[in-house]
Amino acid sequence: MKFEVKDKTQGRKSKTLARLYRAYISEIVAIVNSFDTCKEINIVGDCVSAMFAGEGENTPVIEALQAASMSNGMMKILNVKYKKKWGSNFKELQAGIGVALGRALVIKAGFNGSGIKDLIYMGDVVNRASKMCGLAHKEYSWPICVTEGAYLAAGTYIANSETQKTFQDYLSPNFHPKHGTVYTGNFHRISMQEWVDDNS
Questions:
Q1: Would residue 1 count as lying in a domain?
Q2: Which of 24, 45, 98, 168 has a CA between 20 and 30 Å from the CA of residue 188?
Q3: Does the pLDDT value for residue 45 go beyond 70?
């Protein structure tokens, strides 16, 4: 026989945390899903990962960086909303955003008769993107971290039409002993930052 005593305070904290995660995850999923080259979205715990591939008006790398700018902006918006709701006791949420470029092995995995036939993306690029997420906001103070390959592939694409700056202009090189040269930055959508400035 097992007796349990529920802590009402802990229960309220759990519900609040669940709401925070649900809002954050749903917003990030909506952002990455809005891009044509986004082929797969996975959610594991509090991590949202997306695989960009194919061809289009913009390359997968450009769309991944655009998604990174929107995700970064969305985190700022969520923090403003949460701080208004919970006051000065609210600790700002931080999420590392990583982008890597490379080839991935795509396999269909499942079990015959189970109805489960998921596409699984495997390869070093998946691991490297995860490592970049881990470096952002932890080893480096910036929220976005990309591999050298992703940085170079961004090329001369104009990320800001007013200033004519490219994504490369918003990223700074850092040498990491394990991952070589990585690039970090804090770029975001201007309209999102304007909303943050007006509502902070």
A1: no
A2: 45
A3: yes
Cα(150)–Cα(60) distance, integer angstroms = 10
pLDDT, tens digit, for every residue of 1-13?
333 334 444 556 6
The pLDDT score that the predictor gives to residue 3 is 36
What is the number of alpha carbons within 13 Å of residue 62 lying toward its C-beta? 15
What is the span of the domain harbouring residue 60?
9-199
Asked whether residue 3 is assigned to any structural domain, the reply reads no
CB neighbours of residue 82 within 10 Å:
19
Contact, 172 vs 161, CB < 8 A?
Answer: no
SS3 state at 145: strand
CATH number for the domain spanning 185: value is 3.30.70.1230
Return the structure tokens found at 32: 């990455």
Whole-angstrom distance, CA of residue 189 vs CA of residue 169: 15
**pTM for the full model?**
0.84
The tally of domains found in the chain comes to 1
Does position 113 have pLDDT exceeding 80, yes or no?
no
- What is the number of residues in the chain? 200
Read out DSSP for 63-97? HHHHHHHHHHHHHHHHHHHHHHHHGGGPPPP---E
Residue 132 lies in a domain: yes
* pLDDT single digits (tens) 145-196: 999 999 999 999 999 999 999 999 999 999 999 999 999 999 999 999 999 9
